[in-house]
Amino acid sequence: MKKLFVLLAFAAFLIFPACEVIEEYPVTFSVVDDGLNPVENAKINIEGEDALTTDVDGKATIELTDGVYTYEVSAEGFETQSNLEFEVEEEAKEIKLELFLEIEVDVEELEEIEELEEVEELEEVEEEVEELEE
Asked: Looking at the domain assignment, is residue 2 inside a domain?
């Protein structure tokens, strides 16, 4: 019985050291706006991983193994930041991101403003001409 136990222990020693323990490290994202206020509900999409959502403090954490990761960050009302990269190297990591408000341009409204400005300029020129004619 003792020989069987020693034999099994030796076999386990030969088999299990070959099984490498893969370490994971916490990666914490802190997302703020251009006023450095936390952005709640920002979506962080890391290629090959489940999406993260920031909490009320603008933070989200995931456990990852060593490697290089590509990701994007988006939030309603902010410009999406894409093709970002970070590397995990045997330690915890904190990534700070600043999002900027999304600017939407209404082309029709912009054209109307330009037309009004042109009309105002034309009226000013006409007034100057009238003054010169007097």
From this structure: no
